[in-house]
Write a structure and sequence with these properties.
- The structure is a single chain.
- This protein folds into two domains: 10-100 and 218-259, Rossmann fold, CATH 3.40.50.1860; 105-215, Rossmann fold, CATH 3.40.50.1860.
- Strand 7 (180-181) and strand 8 (184-185) form a beta hairpin.
- The chain has helices at 21-30, 52-69, 80-93, 105-111, 123-127, 129-138, 152-160, 167-174, 200-206, 217-228, 248-259; strands spanning 10-15, 35-40, 74-77, 98-99, 116-121, 143-148, 180-181, 184-185, 188-191, 212-214, 238-242.
- The radius of gyration is 18 Å and the shape is globular.
- It is an alpha/beta fold.
- The two termini are 20 Å apart.
- Helices cover 43% and strands 17% of the residues.
Length: 263
């Protein structure tokens, strides 16, 4: 890990916890020469149960403090729950490009052959007006099952830290995604929380039947490259910071392990 350079674009990737590492990995695979700060608001994880005003104010404060030390050229909100609520406030306060993460309903609706898709998200994302607008605008004629999981993000964090997570606990959370109707079955599941791809192997193994699991990370990475429109040479640095006291070293260790996996 080298020093931040003036030549390299600086990218801040933010999430409520470890889930945004899936997005970080995809961006870094596409833009290895950029300098990165991964910022995890672990002190307030999970976001799904936070009141909207508390979530907005907290995200603005945390990102504002981080930018003071790491003047980012682009900020990536690698969290569906935050993105569906806080993007307008962030874009009003900060001048750099802000790239959000929203449920990939449009590509799922375009790709489905059965006409049945599911959106697996946190309760907060499921309840947002923004999610309803995406369904209205891009999923006409498609039956969309919204599944607000209270536990799956936490299970993903536990699994990433090496703790045992029972198959039955995961299946309880994903089971409602699988709908059979008039001889048709759900064929696409939108992973509308960046934590969920951390469990992708388990999700595929436990699914009652094969489906396409849509991970937003590759599309987010392409968008970041598009808005930056800058080349970076060599290999950039990365650092990790948690809002939970005393956990920076553990976060950096997990981030290093995730970045070593294929994007």
């Amino acid at each position: 890990m080298g020093p931040v350079t003036k030549e390299n674009p600086r990218i801040l990737v933010f999430d409520s916890g470890l889930g945004g590492l899936t997005v970080f990995r995809a961006i870094r695979a596409l833009l290895p020469g950029a300098d990165y700060l991964y910022l995890a608001d672990d002190a307030r994880f999970p976001y799904g149960a936070l009141a909207p005003d508390a979530l907005i104010d907290g995200v603005l404060d945390v990102i504002g403090a981080a930018i003071a030390d790491f003047p980012a050229d682009c900020v990536v909100i690698a969290c569906n729950t935050a993105s569906t609520l806080v993007l307008p406030a962030l874009r009003a306060r900060f001048t750099m490009p802000i790239v959000g993460t929203v449920p990939a309903i449009k590509p799922a609706a375009a790709a489905t052959k059965s006409g049945l898709i599911a959106v697996l998200a946190t309760p907060g994302t499921v309840s947002r007006d923004y999610t309803a607008e995406l369904i209205r605008d891009f999923a006409q004629g498609v039956a969309v099952t919204l599944v607000g999981s209270k536990a799956l993000a936490g299970l993903a964090e536990r699994a990433l830290r090496g703790e045992t997570v029972a198959d039955a606990d995961i299946l309880t959370e994903i089971g409602p995604c699988f709908v059979e109707q008039d001889g048709r079955r759900t064929d696409h599941v939108v992973l509308a929380c960046t934590h969920y791809p951390l469990l992708l192997d388990r999700l595929q193994a436990l699914a009652p039947w094969p489906v396409e699991w849509i991970d937003p990370a590759p599309a987010i990475a392409r968008r970041v490259a598009q808005v930056l429109a800058r080349e970076a040479r060599g290999e950039g640095m990365f650092a990790a910071h948690s809002t939970k006291a005393g956990t920076n070293s553990a976060l950096l260790a997990v981030a290093t392990r995730i970045l070593a996996l294929p994007a």
